[in-house]
Amino acid sequence: GEDVEQSLFLSVREGDSSVINCTYTDSSSTYLYWYKQEPGAGLQLLTYIFSNMDMKQDQRLTVLLNKKDKHLSLRIADTQTGDSAIYFCAETPVYNQGGKLIFGQGTELSVKP
Amino acid sequence: DVKVTQSSRYLVKRTGEKVFLECVQDMDHENMFWYRQDPGLGLRLIYFSYDVKMKEKGDIPEGYSVSREKKERFSLILESASTNQTSMYLCASRGGSGGRNEQFFGPGTRLTVL
């Protein structure tokens, strides 16, 4: 079945770049997503990339997609303490029943001043 | 502003109790979802609904049931709560089908079963 894998923790210093990685198994996914969960809150869509794209940039965020290796990454430039959160990678299975999403385990990003 | 609300932020129940978790969305969305979130496991789909009175099992439906009598409300029911159902429960909703799949999440209910 489908599977999405992420490392669980990442720690960076304020001002550095953060790179959060994700691998997925369903090569038919049309969209891949990054969701952010701040402490005590639900998830919020941060950004997404369509499967025919290699890269998408949105202000401090850069998403890279390597379809051959089924690898997705999220780069946050100039990381701030307010970026501390859990980041989830997600894909939409090809059969997409009702818009089902498959989530990774989440990467907890800790930003140290 | 889009909004998904959940009836409780924190809930403590005893083993064997029947537990209701309520979720309401104000976006007229067709699709609604219940997930549980556990450390190291991410979000796992329990049930979802694509229309009123319609429901589909997700990946971990055992021990849970759902009800969707009105479009805006999706309830998760634990018929007889057990300690292994202690978790964070997240509700989400989504409009339409196909295309970009943005799900809107509620703040979560942290359920503890003693």
In short:
Chain A contains no helices and eleven strands.
Outline the secondary-structure elements:
The complex is a heterodimer of chains A (113) and B (114).
Chain A: E1 4-6, E2 9-13, E3 18-24, E4 31-37, E5 43-50, E6 55-58, E7 61-66, E8 71-76, E9 85-91, E10 102-103, E11 107-112
Parallel strand pairs in A: 2-11
Antiparallel strand pairs in A: 1-3, 3-8, 4-5, 4-9, 6-7, 7-8, 9-10, 9-11
Chain B: E1 4-6, E2 10-13, E3 19-25, E4 31-38, E5 42-51, E6 54-57, E7 65-70, E8 73-78, E9 87-94, E10 104-105, E11 109-113
Parallel strand pairs in B: 2-11
Antiparallel strand pairs in B: 1-3, 3-8, 4-5, 4-9, 5-6, 7-8, 9-10, 9-11
Can you offer a commentary on this structure?
The complex is a heterodimer of chains A (113) and B (114). With 113 residues, chain A is mostly beta strands. Chain A has no helices and eleven strands. In chain A, strands 2, 4, 5, 9, 10 and 11 form a six-stranded mixed β-sheet that branches. Chain A has a five-stranded antiparallel β-sheet with strand order 1-3-8-7-6, with no helix packed on it. The mean pLDDT of chain A is 90. Chain B is 0% helix and 55% strand. In chain B, the strands form two sheets. In chain B, strands 2, 4, 5, 6, 9, 10 and 11 form a seven-stranded mixed β-sheet that branches. In chain B, strands 1-3-8-7 form a four-stranded antiparallel β-sheet, with no helix packed on it. In chain B, a hairpin with a 3-residue loop joins strand 4 and strand 5. Chains A and B meet through strand 5 of A and strand 4, strand 5 and strand 9 of B.
